[in-house]
Amino acid sequence: MYNFDYVRPSSVSDAAQALSNNTDASLVAGGHTLIPTLKQRLAQPSALIDISQLAELKGIRSDGGNIVIGAATTHAEVAGSADVKAAIPALAELANGIGDRQVRHRGTIGGSVANNDPSADYPAALLGLGASVVTNRGRYDADSFFTGLFSTALHPGEIITAVHFPIPDKAGYAKFEQRASRYCLVSVFVAQKSGGIFSSGETRVAVSGAGQNGVFRVAEMEQALQGNFSPSGVSGIKVSSANLMNDMHGAADYRAALITAMAERAVGAASA
Amino acid sequence: MPTISLQVNGKTVSGEVQGNTLLTDFLRQNLGLTGTHVGCDTSQCGACVIHVNGDSIKACTMLAAQADNASVTTIEGLSQGDDLHPVQAAFREAHGLQCGFCTPGMIMSAADLLSKNPNPSEAEIRSWLSGNLCRCTGYHNIVKAVQIAAGQMSGQRIAAE
User: Fold this and answer.
1) B11 belongs to a structural domain
2) Are residues B91 and B136 in the same domain?
3) Which of A106, A211, B3, B18 could form a disulfide with A30 if both were Cys (CB 3.0 to 4.6 A apart)?
């Protein structure tokens, strides 16, 4: 690992100032992607700005029809939250399946969302629930936030402060784990909500681990589930393998088959 | 260079670290606490598990500077002098180790589990320890050791009440 300056700001605005003073700096929270990346010398930031202990980025609250999770909240905190378990049990379950317990004690939701790994769990939940990403400069819908492999709509120097998850009527998550890394070989998040606060449609289906451009929605499954919210509603729908990842962990055709299977399981598991 | 100050096994320690100093390196090289092992150095094997502010974490994937002001417990801080922690004693009793390399991390993970869930099921034990790899034992005796420790620790609680 190359050396870098270590900076611990006392507020989000201090962190933003530190980032604008030093364009080669990088934010760090749990560091569970960044530190391994630095060890491999795949990045060489001049400074790490540690936002993991900022109180304004931590914590979970229920706010009207939303669950609001601070960006520096760890996966273990989300998985163990009584508010999350009561309102969106599928989200607690998803958080509890990331990595292993020791990883979940450090890794944060903001870090995972900002990294947008195509095989990460959280992007499926954000897209599947129609969540909003709140930053120190504004707010993004999940549909416009995830823009491609490891890329997001965030501007240089922009800091995620929280994620707002609308509380659905029902949601389910199913993950086929890559056994060595515990990332998603394929995962599917399904949510349904009457009342139409989702930006388009009442049922959403989001897939992680499979797309060449990262997380994506499956319109055909969403339409089918609006008429028939049951595993049989999606069992006959195959996603084209043309834009799916094809690597040593799984061929594109295999991932396509898994998307249907995981969608069936996610719908079957969906609970209020 | 940042100067950090933290509690390690109940004692206040401080030292200068570089930004890129890992917590494992600070413990092993600055403090001589070599019970925290470095196996894979990629946050997969769990040989480096310690407790930071009451949670088990992988110290190879935390910067020393991030532990400033934290309360840290390593395997060296678990026993009370010659009196082994119940998890340590149970690993010996159940033969939960062979080469011993993974053992400090296994014990620190298991001790955190039992502090949060005093009566875990076998599935909960296996799930909690899934980030601790052992290439010798096949895990059965490790799980057995955690079950023995859970029984002994709940017995101690009853005796104390």
Assistant:
1) yes
2) yes
3) A106
pLDDT of residue B1: 76
Q: Which of A2, A36, A38 sits opposite B43 (nearest CB)?
A: A36
CB within 8 Å: B109 and A103: no
pLDDT one-digit tens code per residue, A51-76: 999 999 999 999 989 999 999 999 99
Q: Looking at the predicted complex, does its ipTM rise above 0.85? A: yes
DSSP annotation string for A53-108: T-GGG--EEEETTEEEEETT-BHHHHHH-HHHHHH-HHHHHHHHTSS-HHHHTT-B
> Which residues on chain B are in Cβ contact (under 8 Å) with A105?
55-57
d(CA B35, CA A224): 56
Q: Are residues B91 and B60 in the same domain?
A: no
Residue B159 lies in a domain: no
Is 60 exceeded by the pLDDT of residue B55? yes
Does A43 lie at the interface with B, CB-CB under 8 angstroms? no
Say whether B56 and A101 touch across the interface (CB within 8 A): yes
Q: Is residue B161 part of a domain?
A: no
Q: How far is B108 from chain A (nearest CA, A)?
A: 11
Report yes or no on B160 lying in a domain: no
> Do B65 and B99 belong to one domain?
no
Number of domains in chain B: 2
Across the interface, which of B20, B43, B46 has its CB nearest the CB of A1? B20
Residue type, A239: V
Query: Would you tell me which residues 130-159 of chain A have a C-beta closer than 8 angstroms to some C-beta of chain B?
Result: none
Q: Are B144 and B132 in contact (CB under 8 A)?
A: no
